[in-house]
Design brief:
- This protein is mainly beta.
- The protein folds into two domains: 163 residues, Immunoglobulin-like; 99 residues, Immunoglobulin-like (Sandwich).
- It is 10% helix and 38% strand.
- Helix 3 links the parallel strand 7 and strand 8.
- It is elongated.
Length: 309
Amino acid sequence: MRKTLLIFLLLTYKLSFCSATACFWCLRDYANNSDLLISEVLFNPKTGGADFVEIYNPTSGALSLNTVAIASIDSIGEIGNIKNLGSGTIPGGEYRVISVSSSKIKANYTCPYPDRFIELSSMPAYNNTIGHVILLRSGEVLDRLDYTEEMHNPLLNIVKGVSLERVSFDKPANAAGNFISAAASVGFATPGYANSVEENRGLERDAVTLSAKVFSPDGDGTDDVLNISWSLKHCGNMATITIYSDQGRVIRRLLKNESVSTGGSMSWDGLNDKGQLAAYGIYVAVFSSFDLKGNNVNLKKAFALAGKL
């Protein structure tokens, strides 16, 4: 009897404590919900651009969008500005981008899946410095992000046109550090596809790989460029990629202190910093990065630049 009463009191406290504003219980419930989740938000678009909210289906099956809506918080702290997404479904593991203008999003960012857009006649009001993104199904909160401009990478000089991306779908949206700036290496947003800062679950160590041990930029269609790929355990990295000669001279600076995705690649065409073809020989690609939590990466890979004699 006492145990039943205790459970009843706890549930009563939970229901009375939760409201339209975020709380510990609410955040836990949203995170455990196997339905749709907020994946990415652009609330301060480029001049002439448009806001967007990206949602993700973490399940293995298709989910209906018939009763799904996005919203914000009004001036009295209540859920308002509700915008229904209409009909349709979202397959498992896919994303949908919600905006008033898919053409503006496609003009400003790389969009490999142009059919993953939902156009609305109007969007909820999302302030450029602080705001709330609410995802609803039949009036029930599925997920909620309380964002501020301060969540952006402090090393970025300009945040206009930079989206906030979710790092982990296993953690509540409002968990500390779970939404951060999209990487510069992908153009500062990834509308319709995997987030650039999404954590590499299961990755044991940072890695850098080359597409070939020998490449020949002679235009014959075989190994004309060298692809340098990386996989990083941590997100929010500022990276530098430099090509050195076997004597330690800088040949080409491919990247210098730029925010990069947790997994990505960059190509070298064999030209030096002066735009001239580098001499045949042995070179070293050096990938170095750091994040604001003190994680550092410094990896080197040797290769050869060859050609026809």
